């Protein structure tokens, strides 16, 4: 039966058999091949749009005889791929046709930009040609990785960013010199797949204006880059600008990890829009209960049926596409516990999808990081199926640092375990599966963690009830901004101490963008809807807080200079024959006398790596005082031929709190003062003392 061509606004078209792979729309000689997996559809129709005004030009039924298995295929000759905008209409068992829906594998969505305009989506082909000449993936080992989490728009949207292209891929590219100077070697980008920022139902309590979905955790198209992040929204242009960003970051020695959202989609529950999957393969792509209602384990209205065979194949294809077409270096999986749930929604002991991702040969170079929770109460930190490939956002580390610095009972012993890479969570796997962080996009910034006891989310229009209720934060005696010198000094101590601990911990450190210079969200700990200065990075803070940035840069440089701080294996307390110290030893006010009591407020650790072959041992000593009074601590003797030098003392103002690595002044005597709510970090260096340099 020949294909039915309706609305013949394109009379030169002809239809022939297609091929089922690759899925999606693919240019072929003389036209375009369409291949659409749609297991539950009775029929399918192709809709072709005018690329200039979006009006429907032609509709073509997929011939039944061209169907291969459950894949609808045909080749349409006479189409110009560069001007092909299209959609599908799905015929159900009753013969009814759906409204036009998107191709789940569309590589570009026309009508998706610029930012803030209600989209009128159409699938479009985008040129795959890009000149990657000279590009090399940095291939940074996990033990050397320093991750910097940021958002493409929010990072440079504020006028204070000073870039020529604010809020775009190009704007972020302009900030590469800052990233290099800081010492990070990996950026983790919040979602860059196409999403609709106008889908937020809340309004600003102050103005009544609709709030935007700034972060983008509501994917519309998994293969298409966010068009509004580009300076040019034409088909192919956003892809080119994102590839330019990846290539430029690689040239600077910086890897790129994408935050991907395979746990839910922008279709929501049945009240939401039908965009693609709901019409093409609802039961395969979403979890449904016995009455065909959406199972909501993500607090978004729907849950992706990740371990259904067809959905699993889609996810793998999508990851391979980004790893090859965009040459990204890894993925962070939002609410990754959904990837571990079966088709009935229950957690699986050995879920197929995480295993398939871990062993996929195309993804073998990619870093894999799980947010090992979901909104239904699953908490798999330390137990997410890893297959010796997956790392995790270590929330236990975050909570342990915060509780330690607030002097909470039992926090000293808890943080000691986190400091050495969480061997209780990752036994036999080493320290690198632990992605250590103190702050991330979810929650308070580091500056706000020291300035607010409570969340202040009223601007989100949800009555201030959204966001994390309790973040183990401390306002240091005054809620919000303060000009009290004592309050400000205490906040500085807490923030710089937290940064020092992050740099000194085994595992992979992750910084939140702007924390290096005191970025604030004014107490908002759920700024997903704040496409405002509140949710953007304010770069004027950089000028005001150069001391904290300098301190952060020196901490990261010190970490690079001392492999003892980034060992891939967990250090233990056994002393090898001929060594003066074990890989880690614990101390207190006196050497070898740690205080593990519930009320302890002092943690001291000596980390040692034997030099061998006549090289100098790598040895550092860390002491943290979480109490309210200063302490004088007796330091263990330095290894033979070495002398203790002071790298950092966070009781000092941030610009004076750390020295340049290699220029640390010698410690005067065998005791070191550890200020209240502060820490010191010493390094053993050869005597005579190194020539000291100013800390400023």
TrEMBL record:
<dbReference type="InterPro" id="IPR006047">
    <property type="entry name" value="GH13_cat_dom"/>
</dbReference>
<feature type="domain" description="Glycosyl hydrolase family 13 catalytic">
    <location>
        <begin position="149"/>
        <end position="546"/>
    </location>
</feature>
<keyword id="KW-0809">Transit peptide</keyword>
<dbReference type="InterPro" id="IPR048650">
    <property type="entry name" value="ISOA1-3-like_C"/>
</dbReference>
<dbReference type="Pfam" id="PF21156">
    <property type="entry name" value="ISOA1-3_C"/>
</dbReference>
<feature type="compositionally biased region" description="Basic and acidic residues">
    <location>
        <begin position="459"/>
        <end position="468"/>
    </location>
</feature>
<dbReference type="InterPro" id="IPR004193">
    <property type="entry name" value="Glyco_hydro_13_N"/>
</dbReference>
<dbReference type="Pfam" id="PF00128">
    <property type="entry name" value="Alpha-amylase"/>
</dbReference>
<dbReference type="InterPro" id="IPR014756">
    <property type="entry name" value="Ig_E-set"/>
</dbReference>
<dbReference type="InterPro" id="IPR017853">
    <property type="entry name" value="GH"/>
</dbReference>
<dbReference type="Pfam" id="PF02922">
    <property type="entry name" value="CBM_48"/>
</dbReference>
<dbReference type="InterPro" id="IPR013783">
    <property type="entry name" value="Ig-like_fold"/>
</dbReference>
<dbReference type="InterPro" id="IPR013780">
    <property type="entry name" value="Glyco_hydro_b"/>
</dbReference>
<feature type="region of interest" description="Disordered">
    <location>
        <begin position="459"/>
        <end position="480"/>
    </location>
</feature>
<comment type="similarity">
    <text>Belongs to the glycosyl hydrolase 13 family.</text>
</comment>
<protein>
    <submittedName>
        <fullName>Glycogen debranching protein</fullName>
    </submittedName>
</protein>
